[in-house]
Structure formats: structure tokens, C-alpha cells
Amino acid sequence: MVKTRNRPKRLDGFQRLFLLLVICMIILLGYILSNIPGGTLGLEDTVAEFQDRSGVESPVTAVLLNFRAYDTMLEVVVLLLAVIGAWSLTKSPLPGQVADISPIQMGVVRLLAPVMCLVAAYLVWQGSHLAGGAFQGGAILGAAGVLILVSDFPQIHTISALSLRIGLVLGPLFFVGIAFCCLFFTGDLLGYPEETAGWFILLIESACALSIGVTLAALFAGSRPESGVQKKQPAVKQSPDRGNS
Amino acid sequence: MNVDNPTWMIIPILLPLTAGLLCFLFHRKTFAIVLSAVLANFMAACFLTGQLLTFGHMRYSMGGWQAPLGITLRTDGPAVLMLLMTGVTGLAITLYARGYFSFRIDDPGRTERHQHQQRYFWPLWMLLLSGLNGLFLSNDIFNLYITLEIIGISAASLAALSGKPAALLASFRYLLTSLLGSLTFLLGIVFLYKSCGVLDLDLLRNLTEHGPGVRAALALMSVGLLLKTALVPMHFWLPPAHANALAPVSAILSALVIKGSFYLLFRLWFEVFASAITTAALNVMGTLGSVAILWGAIQAIRQHRLKLMVAYSTVSQLGYLFIAFPLSRTADNAQVWSIVIFMAMAHACAKSAMFMSAGTIFLHFGHDRIRDLTGVRASLPITVFAYGIAGVTLMGLPPSGAFIAKWLLLSSALASSQWWWALVIVAGSVMAMIYVFRVISRFIVIPEGFSSQKLGYHSRLLEWPALALAMISLLLGLAAPWPLHILARGSHDLTQILPGGLP
Questions:
Q1: Residues with Cβ < 8 Å from A20, sequence gap 6 or more?
Q2: What is the mean pLDDT of residues B255-259?
Q3: Cα B289 from Cα B320, distance rounded (Å)
Q4: Cβ contact (<8 Å) for A88 and B160?
Q5: Chain-wide mean pLDDT for chain B?
Q6: Minimal Cα distance from B19: which residue of A?
Q7: Mean pLDDT to the nearest integer, B109-118
Q8: Nearest Cβ partner of A74 from B63, B146, B199?
Q9: What pLDDT is recorded for position B477?
Q10: B155-190: pLDDT as tens digits
Q11: DSSP secondary structure string for all residues of A115-178
């Protein structure tokens, strides 16, 4: 696969055969998929049945953060693992520092970043009844972080390595902490008390959105911070915005 | 919590997970965190075994949501034996890793780099351990996919940790292969969910009808898992990735990570979709397994570097696990389970001991060219002893656990008149003898006028964990009735005998 990209050469016989086989397999799989008898199969009805006990109105959020919250907890850990893996490899300052950043860019980012944080907070809040949630909110936060990174604000150099790590670990750790709390109080791991389930979910989502935002921005920066003075990540500083919303 | 409470089974998952997060957060006292997590994990595995023996199968519904809606975990015989295997091996590897890293950090010159390696090793290893335990315990196919992701990403990061260009290249290839395997598995889940509408393994097992959708799903998931397990045509990524990693990482990858995907594959084939498996499919697996045994052994004999040889022997040993597939048509499920579980446990202990010994030798001599490793015994007697004992297990001599597994394989192959598998097993053992003795003879023979190298600082943690694991793998055969008892206890719903006759 890499070879073909490196050398713009015509495919040889083996590659053509391989391509043909892959196409045949895709057609076969598509045929099988389209011929699976649809209908009543699936868990939508079950989810709808238990919806009012989940503490949220959106079925997607109910599945992600309540019925299958364990999956989401591990999924958040997978995101963190990506950062740990990247950090274990390289240590360098931000690549390709722009020599002079135009004042227009600085001004736009100054305006946009707070708005994006607000939108992220709103998306997390909206997750309880409409489309939205931690991953969407976190993606917006991450985008805000990327904007600030490419604009090279001086403040991002003052963030300490520890606070950056706290930002990364907060979501997963909070999730696990809530899981243990639930175990302690209700006897079920991640079994929220029914009347306050919505609040638990909102808390977890907020913490996870923050961590996902930091994770995405850290992955964009791509390398671990030098010990001592820092090179990245703004989202930590803007987290209080979310609490207010 | 009472002792019969199924909630205990979350401990082996959540404890290493928390420990991993804390290790990443704090840079001090990480070894204390890791050691307590690994010890607690081992004790939890023992406790769950006792619980299984006393109370039988356990189910735990996450968050109190029952099966079709929520995620369930369960313990049964194979699961707790794999947990025990992971617990014991994980404990030894953790201790060895401590000795390994402190040895390298004491080496002046590259202290900072080795400190950094150690700092990232602990969280990655803890999260990997939690993913493995999650895989062994999970009873939900989508949750299994997520544990595979955790295992795949942390394993690839661990393989890259040494930072050498060869290791980076190998681990990148490993990452891509592993992701391809995961995504194929995920595609299989899509087909499965579309056809059956449930994700819980127990509910999937109860479905009697296996349409083309389920068959396609099974094929996709099997290929994905085979890619991760490195069965022969798909083993290309394994030797470079395992041989170029740091020694504790090689031990983890070869002993545990491979077993995770194999265990899942085996569970899918022999428990969940047992009635959809055809004789032809079983024979294909057996054939690939035979090719793996022979090809891996030939490659191992041809290698000039110790770690590459050990890595190729993993390719070879994996083949035995797959030979058990076609024999399942005549043996009952409990017997097949006991064969693969024995083989997996013995191989996990022996192979990690071997990689640890190879790593110790590499640390002290600065290279692992087999030709130049003459007389190592004089400098590192315990390490060489551990290597030799582990070699006994790889050859399958009594009283090792591998002997029991091979004995069971041979007897069921002959009992079902499938003698060709027996031939492959014997040939593989003879070839294992060649590649083990080729190295051992170098280690042991001290030529005339040979002056042993004086070693400086020397940590016991580098030698004793390997020896302990090697001894466990050797004595596993003597303790054979005990794991069989656990399996029997777990197998009251594994009694379904596979359809199909002789070829």
C-alpha cells in the first residue's frame, strides 16, 4: 500500500489480482449486507423502554453514558492512550513555528476561541436531550486549542506539564471515580442513582469533554512537553467557561 | 461485599486502569503504584478462581442493566485461568522490568533516555493489563472490540518504546496491522448486529439460525483476530516487532498480547458460534497451524540473533494452538479447551522467561548474536538455567505444561485417526529441540582458556523472575489436575459437542 504511493508506477500483476479480489469481496459483503432481513431486530425498542430511567432524554446519550457507560469509559482511555503513545516517542517543541503571525489571525482567534468554548459547553449541555455530548463538545474544544496553538499565543508556553497531564487524565479518572462512587452508594459499578442520573451524566460529560479537547490539541502538537516550561495546550485555561454555562 | 458477590470481577479491570492513569499523572512513586496494582490483580485472580470453584459461574451486569441493554462480564473456567496466567506473568514481568530499567538507568550516558522509557512504560503496561483482563472477562462483543483497541494501541506504543529506528518501523507496521485487524473485527460486529440485533455473547449463542450475515460476520471477525494473533501467512509483523522491543515489552507482547486475541477467537469459534463452524473451516485452521509450526521452527533455526530466534519460536508455538481446532470434531469441548489453555499458559510462562533471559544477556553483553554468546553460563548461571528450563517447555518434554498439552493433542489426533496432525506435532517438537539446543550448547560449553567476563552491578530482579516463570512452566504439568478441575467446573455449559465427522 505504501509502495504504490511512493512510486507512481503502474500496478503489477499481483497488485491487480489483489485489487480485483478486494473489489469482489466488497461486492459480496455489500450483497450480503443488503440481503439481511431487516425489521424488528435491534435494541431501539429496549432502549426506548428504559429511556425514562436513564436520566436523559436523548437515546444516544442514554446508551453512551448510562446503559453502556463502561464502553465509553474504556473508549476515553483509548484516546488517552493515543496521547501517551505519542508522547512516549518524541520530545520536541511545536513544529514549524510561524515567523510572524498576522494581527488579523490573532484578533480572529482571540474572538473565536472563547466562542468555541461556549459552543462546546453548550453541546455538552445539549447532549442530555438532543444530538451532542462529550465527544462533540470535546472536538470543538480541541479545534479551539489547535487555533490557539497555530497562533502561538505566549500564554501557552506558561502551562506546566503537570496541569497539562491533569487536563488529559481528568476525564478518564473522573469517570472511574464516579464508577467507584456508584459502586459504593448503589452497589452497581456505574449504576447511577436513578433520580440524579442526569447530573452524574452531565458531570462525566463535562470532565470528558475537557479531556478530549486537551487530548486532541495535544495530539495536534504531537510531542510531549519539555519538562519545565511548556509548549502547548490552552484548553486547560479555558475550562472555567464551561462550569459557568 | 460478600464473597459470592460477582462485583469482585471488576477489580482486575479497574485497578490496573486506575493505576495506569495515576502513573501517567504522577512521576514519583510509580513503581509502588504499579507493584500494588499488579499484586492486587494477582490476588483478585486467585480470589475469582476460588469464587468460581465455590459458587460456579458468575455474571455481572454493568450499572445494573441486564443483558440485551447493558454490558455483562462473566467468569468461567477459561476466563479465570487466563486471568491467573496474566496475573502471574504480569507480576514477574513487572519485577523484571524494574530490574531492567534500573540497570539501564544506572548506566551512565543515556540515563535520561532510559528514565523516560521507564516513565512511559508503566502507564502503558498498566492500561494494557487492564485491557487484557477486560478482554478475558467481557461477555459483550462490542466491549470486546474496545478492549482489543486498548490492547492494540498500548502494545504498539510499548513496542516503539525503545526508540531505535528498527523498533519504530516494526511497531508502526504492528500498529497498522493491529488496526486493520480491529477494524475488520468491527465490520464483523456490524454484520452481526444487523443480523441478530444483540451484542451479548450468551444471547448470540442462543440464536440457532446462522444466515449468510452471521457467516460473513464470523469470517470477518476471525480474519481480524488471526491477523492480531499472527497465524502464519499473517505473521509478517510479529518477529521484527517482538525482537526489536525492550526485553520486558517483548515478554509482554509474546506471552500475553497474542493470547488475548487467540482466546477471543477460540471463544467465538467453540462457544458462541460453535454450531456454525464447518469441518472445512476447522481443517483450514489446522493446516495453517501446521504450516506455522514448521515454518516458524525453520525460521527460528536459521536466525543469528537470539531475540529474533525467540520471536520466530513464538510463531511456531502458536501453531499448536491452532492444531487443536480440527481435533475438536471428535474430542468434546472441555478437552479442547484444556489443550489450548494448557498450551497458552505454559507458553506464556516459558516465552516470557525466555525473552527476559535474552534481555538480561543482551544487557550484560551488549549484543545478542548467537555465535558470540559462548560461555554465558560462567557469567549468568541463573539466567542460562532459566533459559534452559523454558526451552524444555518449548520442546514439550515432561513434566512441563506443554507436554500435557501435546500429549492431549497427540492422543486425540491418534484416537480420531487424524495421524497427520500427530506427525506435525512430533516434527515441530524435534525442530524446537534443534533451535533450543543450538543456543543452549553455546551458553553452556566453556571453551579452553575462556575467561569469564567480570560483571559489575548486578540485579537479582533481572534473573529471579525469569527463573520463577520458567519453573512454573515446568511444574505446570505436575499440577495438571488442578487447572483441569477449574475447567471442568466451568464447563457445565460447554458440553455441546461439535457436529461433523471425519474428512
A1: none
A2: 95
A3: 6
A4: yes
A5: 89
A6: A173
A7: 86
A8: B146
A9: 86
A10: 999 999 988 999 999 999 999 999 999 999 999 999
A11: HHHHHHHHHHHHTTTSS--HHHHHHHHHHHHHHHHHHT-GGGGG--HHHHHHHHHHHHHHHHHH
- Chain A residues in contact with B149 by the CB 8 A cut-off are 75, 78
pLDDT of residue B163: 87
CB contact under 8 A, B124 and A84: yes
**Residue predicted with more confidence, B469 or B379:** B469
Amino acid letter for position A127? G
Domain residue ranges in chain B: 287-503
Cell digits of residue B393: 517447555
Nearest to B127 by CA among B104, B158, B91, B100: B158
* Cβ contact A66–B142 (<8 Å): no
> In this structure, which amino acid lies at residue A215?
T
- The alpha-carbon gap from B19 to the nearest alpha carbon of chain A, in Å, equals 10
| Residue tagged 508503566 (cell numbers) | B122
Q: How far is CA A225 from CA A83, A153, A219, B1, B381, in A?
A: 12, 16, 12, 43, 43
Would you call A244 exposed, middle or buried from its count of C-beta atoms within 10 A (0-12, 13-18, 19+)? exposed
Predicted confidence (pLDDT) at residue B91 exceeds the cutoff of 90: yes
- Tens digit of pLDDT for each residue in A146-177? 998 888 787 777 788 888 999 999 999 999 99
CA distance B281 to B125: 35
Which run of H or of E encompasses A177?
A: helix A161-186
Nearest to A176 among B17, B117, B193 (CB): B17
Question: A103: Cβ–Cβ under 8 A, 6 or more apart, which residues?
Answer: none
Instruction: Give the model confidence (pLDDT) of A52-82 as tens digits.
Output: 888 888 888 888 888 999 999 999 999 999 9
Q: One-letter amino acid identity for A233?
A: Q
Residue B68 DSSP class: T
Instruction: In whole angstroms, give the CA distance from residue B155 to residue B241.
Output: 10
Cis amide prior to B248 (ω within 30 degrees) = no
- Asked if B233 reaches chain A (Cβ–Cβ under 8 Å), the answer is no
With residue B58 as reference, give the H or E element that holds it: strand B58-61
Measure in Å the smallest separation between the Cα of A83 and chain B Cα atoms.
10
Question: ω into residue B499 within 30 of 0, thus cis?
Answer: no
Average pLDDT over residues A34-53: 81
- A55: which chain B residues are within 8 Å (Cβ-Cβ)? none
